[in-house]
Design goal:
- The chain has strands at 2-6, 11-14, 26-30, 34-40, 51-57, 65-70, 78-85, 88-94, 99-103, 110-111, 115-117, 126-134, 137-146, 149-157, 162-172, 185-193, 196-203, 213-219, 227-228, 238-241, 247-250, 253-258, 271-280.
- By secondary structure, it is mainly beta.
- The strands form five sheets. Strands 11, 12, 13, 14, 15 and 19 form a six-stranded mixed sheet that branches. Strands 1, 2, 21, 22 and 23 form a five-stranded antiparallel sheet that branches.
- The protein is globular.
Length: 289
């Protein structure tokens, strides 16, 4: 088991000037260029977040160039996640109901019908993240509420269009500090490393005191990370000072991003990037684990 650690100063990657003045939850992917698509607005309130800003660059060593808006359909647009399959880019986003757009050039996005089966009310809410775990098998993580407590649910698919509810990847116990009605678990991101799955989630009620509170959980099973509880439940293997992070594995190592509302994020609304390292986590007896 490893513990992720932010290992450098933060460097500004992108801040919009045309479509808005901040970026909140976002997605970054590579198609020969690096692309960033994320939440923004000019008003800075969730109900006015009705499109995404799109930026790109050749490398992650330079600030990205703003390209304009995508998904400007007049309704709320939150927390995109883009994944590639067979030359097409699939963008999943919320809030409920889950929406899907598809592109072949990362420029024009076309709405595509999506089918979710079996998900209970409040389970599929917002902040989608999709992870491929086998050749034709994907897991979608979405934040929501279960038994009036924060939760991250998961759905599985074999074609990225039809999704079956598989249960809750992470739930909250009774001894957890935050419980806003919309759910305190935000922006899930899962990576597989050395045979284990690491789930990053920002755990916040959106107050300044905990806005950058990202917890990391680990499991051998990508569908089950347990019940988070400060007394008797699973505990995070790390706590990172960042908001809605993306993890990027490059030929020079791992990177992590942070973002957020202009008046809440320490970046002042910019997306910033830093180096990430994985360190051995000691067991209770002091041996590496």
């Amino acid at each position: 088991m490893k513990r992720p650690r932010i290992a450098s100063d933060w460097r500004t990657l992108f801040i919009p000037t045309l479509c808005g003045d901040y970026v909140n939850d976002h997605t970054i992917y590579y198609d020969g260029k690096w692309h960033l698509i994320g939440i923004t607005s000019k008003e800075g309130t969730p109900n006015h977040e009705r499109y995404f800003v799109h930026a790109a660059s050749d490398t992650l060593d330079e600030p990205m160039t703003e390209l304009g808006k995508v998904i400007d359909d007049g309704c709320r647009a939150w927390a995109p996640c883009v994944t590639e399959h067979n030359g097409l880019y699939y963008m999943f986003y919320g809030p409920s109901p889950t929406k899907l757009a598809v592109s072949f050039d990362s420029g024009d996005w076309f709405g595509q019908e999506i089918f979710l089966r079996g998900n209970p009310p409040m389970a599929c809410h917002r902040d989608h993240f999709v992870l491929q775990i086998a050749e034709n098998r994907w897991v979608m993580y979405v934040t929501g509420v279960h038994n009036r407590k924060s939760a991250i649910s998961c759905l599985t698919s074999e074609d990225l269009l039809h999704w079956d509810f598989s249960g809750f990847a992470l739930t909250s116990g009774v001894n957890t500090p935050y419980n806003p009605s919309w759910g305190a678990m935000e922006s899930p991101f899962v990576v597989k490393k050395d045979g284990l799955y690491y789930l990053f989630t920002t755990y916040t009620d959106c107050s300044r005191e905990n806005y950058h509170n990202t917890l990391v959980f680990v499991s051998e099973n990508p569908l089950s990370f347990g019940c988070y509880d400060e007394i008797g439940g699973v505990k995070p293997v790390a706590r990172l000072f960042c908001h809605a992070p993306e993890l990027l594995q490059t030929d020079r190592g791992w990177l992590i991003t942070t973002c957020g509302w202009k008046d809440s994020a320490f970046t002042g609304g910019a997306v910033a990037v830093a180096d990430l390292v994985w360190e051995e986590k000691e067991q209770p007896d002091g041996t590496p684990g």
